[in-house]
Every structure is written in C-alpha cells, then in structure tokens.
Hints:
With 335 residues, the protein is α/β, with parallel strands linked by helices. Helix content is 33%, strand content 24%. It is globular.
Amino acid sequence: MSRHAAITGIGSYLPETVLTNAELERMVDTSDEWITTRTGIKERRLAGDGEATSHLGARAGVRALKDAGLAADTIDLLVVGTSSADHVFPSAACLIQDQLGLTCSAHDVNAACTSFIYALQTGVTAIESGRAQRVLVIGADTLSRFTDFTDRGTCILFGDGAGAVVLEASDEPGVMGIVMGSDGSGKDMLTIPAGGSAMPVTPEALAAHEQFIKMVGTDVFKFALKIIPAVTTQALEASDMTIDDLDWLIPHQANQRIITAAADRLGMSEDQVISNVEYTGNTSSGSIPLALDDLYTSGRITRGDTLAFVGFGAGLTWGAAIVRWTKTTPNKEAL
Length: 335
Ligand code: UT7
C-alpha cells in the first residue's frame, strides 16, 4: 500500500495592528483609489513591537496542532518557509521549535513568496519516504521589517502573517503532485540587496535604503500571469488530473488583478478562487496557508474536494501542489 501525506490540521495568525490605505495616503504619495484599483488591497497587518516571524509562525503552528489534535512532542519534523527569519541565524524554525516545545529537528526553507510550497514539498517527501510520521509545515513572514515606507511602489503591497498545516502519514492520497521551479536569472526583479554576505548593512547601505525590498513590479506582474496557469497545469498533470477536477484554487495573495487574471486563464470561476488579499495584503510565505484557513473555517470545503495551491516569488521561484481534502470539519476549540 502506498504511503501518502495528508493535511490533518490547519492554523493561521495575523498580528493585531492594521495599516489601512488611508494611513498610507498620509505616508507616501498614493491614494486608496489607486491601491484598490491596482491591487485590491484595502488593509494589511503589521507585527507589533517584540513580535517577529517566529512569533507569528508559532501562533499559527499551535493552532494547527490543536486542530489536528496532536501534542507538540508527537511531531517528527518542523519545516518553516520564510524569507524574513528573525535573524540570519539561528533559523526561525529553531526559535519556533523552542516556543512550541517541539523535540524534533527544525529548519527553514527560503524560496521567498514560494517558500510555503517548497516547505510543503519537504514535509511531504519526509512522510512519503517513511522518515517522518507527522510534520508541521509553517509559512511565515514579517516583510514589513524589510519594507521601505518611503517607496510607494512596494509599501502598499506587503503585510505580515503566518499559516501552518500538519501533515500526517495516510493510506489515502492527500498532497498529490507538487511541481516547483526556479530561474535565478530573474534575481534582480525582486530583491533585498543588503543584509546578506554580498552587502553587509553599512551606514552607506542604510542611507541608500538597500536593506529594503526592491522590485520591478511590472516584470513580476507579467511573470506571475504566465507562471500561475503554467505551473498549476503541470501539477494537475503530475496528479493525472485536469482543470475540471479542481474545486478550489488558492493562489499566492500578491495582487487581486494577478489572482483574477490567472484564474481566468485557467478557466476557474470567481467563487472557486480564494482571495483574502483585500485585508491581508501580500503576506509572502503566509499567504497560501492563511487563505486555506479562511476557506477551511468558512465551512465551504468538504472531504473529497480537490485544491491547487500555487505560488511565485523572488528568485525567481514558483510552485504548485494539488491536494485532495481528507479532513472533515474544523476542531472548533482550535479557533
Ligand atoms: O510576492 C510577489 C511580490 N510582488 C508582486 O506580486 C508585485 C507584482 N506587481 C504588481 O502588483 C504591480 O506591478 C504593482 C501594484 C506593484 C504596480 O502596479 P502597475 O499597474 O504595474 O503600476 P506601474 O508600476 O506600471 O506604475 C504605474 C504608475 C507609475 O506612474 P507613471 O510613471 O505612469 O507616472 C507609478 O509611478 O503608477 C505610479 N505608482 C503609484 N501611484 C500611486 C506606483 N505606485 C503607486 C502608488 N500610488 N502606490
């Protein structure tokens, strides 16, 4: 009998502080009308003082564990998808392990906004190979700490947040085909130049705002429109499925225009496509599991449904996963 990985717990966390478009109007030369029309975003959340990626991830993780009905010491592996760990090292995963009282090995995976898909793949592989029975996969980012709030081209987009899933070994298919890709020739389209080994954070780097996100927005936009339908189709093929088998599409929440256009190209109807970008902004690695938790807690998804997760981001990176839903209803105590 084949060994599969199924999602048995879901949790998410958004920090309390809300940053609205009206507040951004007072910070940079922009308008609620421009932001809404070009992105669909109305507000986003910001991590509070003393709150970093590990804290967001840990809160999402604890909710996912509760939803799965599992104690922390039963988890065999923690994988955290993030590109904004609390420190260069130790990893966010080690900090989360400590906060949750996990006893397993823990590591980060960085594929920018695609990190959750990459982390999911790591968890699925560990289970399918028999090396792990239960894996906690978290997507968490605090990109507000890397956002230049004088750059209107980027500061309107990003928000902080985290989502998590528990994967468990199962006899029935759960996570099915996963396809991932990278193209490092696109490295300059979206980058944080300073803070790594190439450019330490010097006074000169800080003065030039090199510690913040730099993005060629229109190029990323075009890349996203092309890659979302392509990688979703590839993941469906890898699962011996077609678009007609898909009940739900959960794309990376970067921009409503990207979500709508990509869904149109795939021939998915509006009510099959999950979007929360209006009130989360782009939460990077948190976005897909946050949107999944929205769908899950709304009660619309039922056992046997098929979903596609699809992400893209800096690198360039991209990835999609097809998931057969094997859960029933949320564990209300976890909410
Ligand atoms: O996780 C992946 C992360 N990134 C993305 O997914 C980003 C993908 N790209 C986008 O979402 C869009 O490219 C943006 C929302 C960033 C920009 O929208 P756009 O329709 O591509 O606008 P644009 O960059 O072509 O700029 C159009 C105009 C420019 O003015 P001019 O040169 O036409 O006079 C910009 O300077 O809009 C201006 N502009 C703004 N105006 C008001 C750029 N940002 C703003 C702003 N408010 N916040």
